[in-house]
Amino acid sequence: MKKKKNTPLKAIRVKCLDCCFNSSKEVQLCPVKGCSLHEFRFGKNPYQKKNLTESAKRVLREQFSKNLSK
Fold first, then answer.
1. HSE-up of 63 (CA within 13 Å, CB side)?
2. 17-66 pLDDT, tens digit each
3. Torsion angle, CA of 49/57/42/18, rounded to 10 degrees?
4. Strand runs labelled E in 17-70
5. Cα torsion at 5, 9, 13, 19 (round to 10°)?
6. Which residues contact 27 (CB under 8 A, 6 or more apart)?
7. Of 8, 47, 48, 50, whose CA–CA distance to 16 is shortest?
8. Cβ atoms 47, 68 nearer than 8 A
9. Rg from Cα positions in the chain
10. Are 10 and 44 in contact (CB under 8 A)?
């Protein structure tokens, strides 16, 4: 059985859920602003550019699916 790879952002999300007793609401309300994971607690990179063109999204999806099949 092939183990599914975890991305760093997903690992951060899992850690935040663990810290907040597996409550998504508590992760959302997390008051620990000094935590180095705080900005990434939703499993997303707040610094990543979000306005990608459709062709750029297609290229990223293709690259992602190639990496998954390895």
1. 6
2. 999 999 999 999 999 999 999 999 999 998 887 788 889 889 988 888 88
3. -130
4. none
5. 100
6. 13, 16, 17, 19, 20, 41, 42
7. 8
8. no
9. 15
10. no
